[in-house]
Write a structure and sequence with these properties.
Length: about 270
């Protein structure tokens, strides 16, 4: 008798869970169909295109290794310079904005909301679009790439910096406030020590991403090895294109390796 009572008492709840699961599955199925139709995903089209991919890869083989020493060393170094300079300037812009965009340290709600919207706008525009804008503003060359990475990077870093500030322990801050310490001293001795490891991890991740992006900014005239990549493809020099791809892959792999080592040191 007791077992039947328990079953009857729990049955409506179990039935509600079952209907919720069925509704979730139906929504997921409809969403999947909508995505497939909207993006025109087709396995048959991919299979039909495999011969063209094979033909393109065969045209790139073997890579012209000599082209790396002849033309790609300087553009590769320039891509690295663009990434480093863009990251440095992004940090300089993101630090003050992050303190204004952190709810627990912002002077008032007006500064908080305005700073948040500035960060949203900055990171909401893709680097390639920003590069096109800055190429039109300052002309072709690496400076446009630096500005694109700076603007977008400031938005990304500022958001993560602000979130790290909001997650800190308020105890040291309250203790220093009770002792009558000034705001700069509180930030220097109670906030910075708590957020520094998180900030360094985010900076390394952003630098890694910027090196990847800097290799393709040349496609829109913003300097770096991307310009050589675009040129070789337009001239149908696929062996040289393969050489560009090898250099880009080497830069990405080296960045991943160095970044992982630095993250371990930070931890």
């Amino acid at each position: 008798m007791m077992r039947s009572y328990i079953f009857v008492a729990s049955w409506p709840k179990n039935r509600f869970g079952l209907w919720t699961a069925l509704a979730s599955l139906l929504i997921a199925a409809v969403s999947l169909v909508w995505l497939v139709n909207g993006t025109e995903v087709s396995v048959a089209r991919l299979i039909d295109g495999l011969p063209w991919i094979k033909d393109f890869v065969l045209r790139m083989a073997p890579p012209n290794i000599a082209y790396i020493g002849e033309r790609l060393v300087e553009p590769a170094i320039q891509s690295l310079q663009i990434a480093l300079m863009g990251t440095l300037l992004a940090i300089i812009l993101a630090v003050p904005l992050s303190f204004l965009a952190a709810e627990n340290l912002s002077p008032n709600s007006l500064f908080y909301h305005c700073s948040r919207q500035v960060l949203n706008i900055a990171r909401g525009i893709n680097e390639i679009i920003l590069a096109l804008i800055f190429v039109a503003a300052v002309g072709l060359g690496p400076f446009a790439g630096v500005l694109a990475l700076t603007f977008h990077g400031a938005g990304m870093l500022g958001k993560f910096f602000a979130e790290a500030i909001e997650e800190i322990d308020q105890g040291p801050i309250e203790a220093m406030q009770a002792a009558g310490c000034s705001k700069p001293k509180i930030i220097l001795f109670a906030v910075i020590p708590q957020i520094l490891p998180a900030w360094l991890g985010v900076i390394l991740y952003r630098l890694e991403a910027n090196i990847r992006v800097s290799t393709i900014l040349g496609l829109v005239g913003a300097g770096g090895i991307g310009f050589e990549l675009m040129t070789t493809m337009k001239l149908f020099e696929y062996e040289n294109t393969a050489a560009c791809v090898l250099v880009i892959l080497a830069m990405v792999f080296a960045t991943d390796l160095i970044s992982s080592k630095l993250r371990k040191l930070v931890r």
